[in-house]
Write a structure and sequence with these properties.
This protein is mainly alpha-helical and about 90 residues long. It is built from 3 helices and no strands. It has helices spanning about 10-45, 50-60, 65-70. Helix 1 (about 10-45) packs antiparallel against helix 2. The protein is elongated and about 55 Å long. The two termini are about 15 Å apart.
Length: about 90
């Protein structure tokens, strides 16, 4: 398991970059998918379901902040900026 290997903080930040990029990709898909769902439901006349898409888009749009706070609360206050968002080391 590459995440369980003992190493420096830079190695851990490099290993966690894949996890962070996956979480951000899920948030991005959720944000645009929620907006698309809201638009389709509005066009179909089911305006009571528009709210579900907007809530999902809001949660997806805030996912980067949620992920950043989650990783900052673990004690790595300056290392979250060192994480490569593309997943390549």
């Amino acid at each position: 398991m590459p995440l369980a290997q003992a190493g420096t903080e830079e190695q851990l930040a490099g290993n966690m970059s894949g996890v962070v990029s996956i979480l951000n990709m899920v948030g991005l898909v959720l944000a645009f998918g929620g907006l698309l769902f809201s638009a389709v439901m509005f066009m179909m006349g089911q305006t009571e379901r528009v709210l579900y898409g907007l809530v999902g888009a809001g949660i997806g749009g805030l996912s980067f902040i949620i992920v950043k706070v989650m990783f900052n609360s673990s004690g790595g206050t300056e290392n979250i900026e060192n994480i490569n968002m593309g997943g390549d080391n």
